[in-house]
Amino acid sequence: xxxxxxxxxxxxxxxxxxxxxxxxxxxxxxxxxxxxxxxxxxxxxxxxxxxxxxxxxxxxxxxxxxxxxxxxxxxxxxxxxxxxxxxxxxxxxxxxxxxxxxxxxxxxxxxxxxxxxxxxxxxxxxxxxxxxxxxxxxxxxxxxxxxxxxxxxxxxxxxxxxxxxxxxxxxxxxxxxxxxxxxxxxxxxxxxxxxxxxxxxxxxxxxxxxxxxxxxxxxxxxxxxxxxxxxxxxxxxxxxxxxxxxxxxxxxxxxxxxxxxxxxxxxxxxxxxxxxxxxxxxxxxxxxxxxxxxxxxxxxxxxxxxxxxxxxxxxxxxxxxxxxxxxxxxxxxxxxxxxxxxxxxxxxxxxxxxxxxxxxxxxxxxxxxxxxxxxxxxxxxxxxxxxxxxxxxxxxxxxxxxxxxxxxxxxxxxxxxxxxxxxxxxxxxxxxxxxxxxxxxxxxxxxxxxxxxxxxxxxxxxxxxxxxxxxxxxxxxxxxxxxxxxxxxxxxxxxxxxxxxxxxxxxxxxxxxxxxxxxxxxxxxxxxxxxxxxxxxxxxxxxxxxxxxxxxxxxxxxxxxxxxxxxxxxxxxxxxxxxxxxxxxxxxxxxxxxxxxxxxxxxxxxxxxxxxxxxxxxxxxxxxxxxxxxxxxxxxxxxxxxxxxxxxxxxxxxxxxxxxxxxxxxxxxxxxxxxxxxxxxxxxxxxxxxxxxxxxxxxxxxxxxxxxxxxxxxxxxxxxxxxxxx
Length: 726
Fold this sequence. Notes:
The protein is an alpha+beta fold.
């Protein structure tokens, strides 16, 4: 959370978000304190396309701040803030003047002042506004920028900034506009609406000097924040124009899961972006889910892929849009600064170069990810199994082949055949989902630098090769399938030889565990971590391996009681509020549950699921990017916020659907046209049903009753059902 040194040599600090009110409609969002005031501090502001358009919007009534009494979301993209304005001489303690601010992520804010008392009120309203027009990376680093001069306009205020990469502009306009009628009819008497506009070197003010509010009257004004940067790089994702490309199921069962799915899908709708390069005049657009708000409201290969994978039970539309968007930007040449290589899948796409502090400088198109490329292949394979039309599969297959070529070339750089990352100076040091600078530590707490082969990345590569082999075999390419399977077997053997570590303790959950990574000279990075929880679903483990991994995942070392800790609580360097050194990540726990269910380890999966669902109740079912990994005890009221976590976060919002699919035990096989259902036994979390799922374009309804009996309705034509379990 530390950023670069400030001008005085002191640390600059990343803004905290744990108590922020955030509304989002990608690519725009707004962040403020829970009283609704934007004070120009921390991450406060209205944003669009990674640019802060306004950082101050401060309301005063009679030169006093209203007293906040409520903050209520009206959906992912709107927030209502309620406050009161009291008078010391009133004969009653009851507030009579209420102020309501309804804010939209699209840059609109409606202010309503209401007089619910029995006497006339004469009020002065001041709205101070300012901005620095800085980029989100600067805000995240804690650096901020100097407020810009405001210029009064006939309709409000405006700001502009000319920099080396172009120009940025923003405006704040008022409706009714200045110059409109000074009063508006009101059943309880006239209401003055004419503002005075003043500008200055650090911002401006809109002032309504005298508002007469008779009993029962209300005054209302709408402010609109707009802005842009130019030139905007071509191909930058923008807001979608079509509906979300997934179904909305009706879920019945555990009320926590029902609420988690519902809230998650609402947040995912707000996090959608569309690729303008996909619009060809026929009404089509490719949509994907941005990584998270506020820091990562952009295309992130790994995050967008995982969100699409998790939502496959609701249809293949999101997977198709994500795959196409990434395929258009797949690496074509070697570029050291961008870390681009032929076949490599993009890590992140921003409107401009980002300087994060401490020497971290990332280009707008950045490929520094070791896992997005094999995950791209697996997303295509899984979308095929869920019924992505063959024509679409065949159009994307060359991109999957190029991605697999990059994986195999990268593995071929070392004799052991493992997939490693070797970052450039100034890029991301660690290039998997645990990408903070101290993400990889050993059992002594020492930081282990790259080159590194992470355990879950080997699983991703193995799963990609085996999955692609099955796909090309179904398309009649038996020779290529055999090559891929042989290569995957070699990787599996290298993994088994290098990654297992003897626990060295008779009281350990199991006699061995999987190292988080292998460093130079095949030295394993010791110390149990959550990374091994992403292996059971990849197929690289056998049943005995899954048993040992399951034991570790449910141990007190890794299972906090609210979800899976990223690092064992019993090793030096554990910190429950470390980004990757002890915190709980929502998506990480959900992926572990998926793998445990697939491996038939339902008891262990149920324990992790129950903890994650209990945590969801404390976050009002808007699951954050991560949260504290402190031990759950009878006296613990709930999990602790990680103070700078994104919320909403794409793969966290998708975790509810991932759990739903895992607990129902859905496994489609497109080659055999078989849907296997292996549900979690109902004695763990009760009966469960979902209507309105999608398989091969058809509506699918699945129910598991209290006895464990499975009922499936709506199988596509030519498909067959196989049930496993009771």
